[in-house]
Amino acid sequence: MASIAAPVGWRVWLAGARPRTLPAAVVPVLVGTACAAGRADVVAWRAVAAGVVALALQVGTNYANDYSDGVRGTDRGDRRVGPLRLVGSGLRTPGAVKRAALASFLVAAAAGLALAIAVGWELLVVGALAIAAGWFYTGGPRPYGYLGLGELFVFVFFGVVATTGSAYVQEETLSGLALAASVPVGLLATALLVVNNLRDIPGDTASGKRTLAVRLGDARTRWLYVALLVGAVVMVPVVAAVGERPGAALALAAVPLGRRPVIAVLGGARGGELVPVLGDTGRVQLAFGALLALGLWLTA
Question: Cα separations (Å) of 82 from 16, 79, 167, 214, 280?
Fold first, then answer.
């Protein structure tokens, strides 16, 4: 079998940013901004700034994860079956990847500062917590991602905080609609991490990473993945009812896209077979989120 050539130049950094995970950053901004429509005058630059914050936090977290796992030796080439890791593969030095992570967090901080000046300084506290959570996921002396708490971080920061925060910068108040809508967004973002960690169970077990997937085991992790997708669907009528936005039901049109990844996961796909499932899950999240946002906006 012919080997796949490693990326070069800027494509190395793009691969390290793990683009299949980026819907987790885009979707909550779309949904949160749509929640604010009809309740406040949506300010375009604030929505764009919120998007920059979310994307930069996601990319920064991915680079920080790459750096920390790389220097610990938990991403050695003989264990890695997932997307390319920059430090573990030797394509970039630990110092370069660390600087990329810090630069990404700096971009998030700059965009967040602009929002804080316009909206309120409380956003600085939220932003600082988000950056710290991104770094200490696999960084620091006791990374919480190694303790099985990564899914909780993703649900909270890429679900609840990102969605309600995107609505908050428009409305300047918390709303029940944004909070309800953050739940399916967070569940789908968590599903991305669950399938990623399902794929990595053998390597994580060998390297001592006690992720939630390692703790639950293969079979229960597969059912957790399905439960997260089902939970997102179940929440749609709740979101529609809380905000009196029947258009939220438009998100259900994305349900057929979940068929292929669910079949693969329940069918026992493992290792490299789960890499396409990560992409499929990202597409489910992006379609679901875009349709949910559109429906919320149309019935505002």
Answer: 12, 9, 34, 16, 15
